[in-house]
Write the structure tokens for this entry.
Amino acid sequence: MISELHPNRGMGVLVGGALTVWCFVFSAALVWRGVTQPVDLPAVGSHVAATMFFGLGCLFAYWTYSCLTMRYYLDRNGLTIHWGDIRQLIPMDRIQKLVPGRELPNPKITGVSWLGHHVGHGEAGDLGNVLFYATHRSNDELLYVVTEQQAYAISVDDEVRFAEELQGHQQLGQVVSLPQVTERHFVSSLPFWHDPLAQLLALGAVLASAVTLGYVFHQYPGLPESIPFPFASLGFGEKRELLSIPVTGLGLLAVNLVLGFALHAVDRAVGYLLFLAAIGSQITLLAAAIITLN
């Protein structure tokens, strides 16, 4: 028999949802400000800040979803903690004891942590390093599951009932011997998150795009309405046509990053090539802008 336990997630989801909405609204406001103000270098700052807050909003959205789906499965083989795309497998024969949270001082948690949602590492008294997957608002809502390798902090409504169910499953004996590991699924399992070179190349492409955008926006206010285009069939054109350079760059950046992120999981070399192509395209566009304006 499998027991499925759900911690009290209401407060964590409410706070996480509010942070997510705030980030997206603030990002939209920054985009609107950047679009409505004159084309110059400060406008780039608005767009860059909007991108950062949009990315932060996506993170908060994922963390809030993970809070909403947080649950614990208890059976004769062990305890499984579900949080988003992550699973913590704790074999039944590795569990040594349970420690109520009220018996230990307030933990110091680093990671994803806000009121009603705490996931990450922390220090909890004599237990030392603890892995938190909890929605507690006070120590009374915490229960520590201790193994020789790692201690885990969870939130259960009734710790006595949990202890009785755990003991009952232990008496039944394990059917399958499970490893004590962290499993990652779907997006969180992609090798991109564990490949520093791929991350560096992707970041380089983003920075190169920002440089191109910044250069064009910096030069734009001082340009005459009609400027020569060395690569155009007609010698001159309106200066607003120059904005097609950073716009094209952003489009190429998005395509290369998305394809690189997806194909990196299939073949790392292909992912690297696409990230390098993103950098190369930005350098080419920057060179075109410099040649045009000089």
Remarks:
- DSSP finds six helices and 13 strands in the chain.
- Residues 190-294 form one domain.
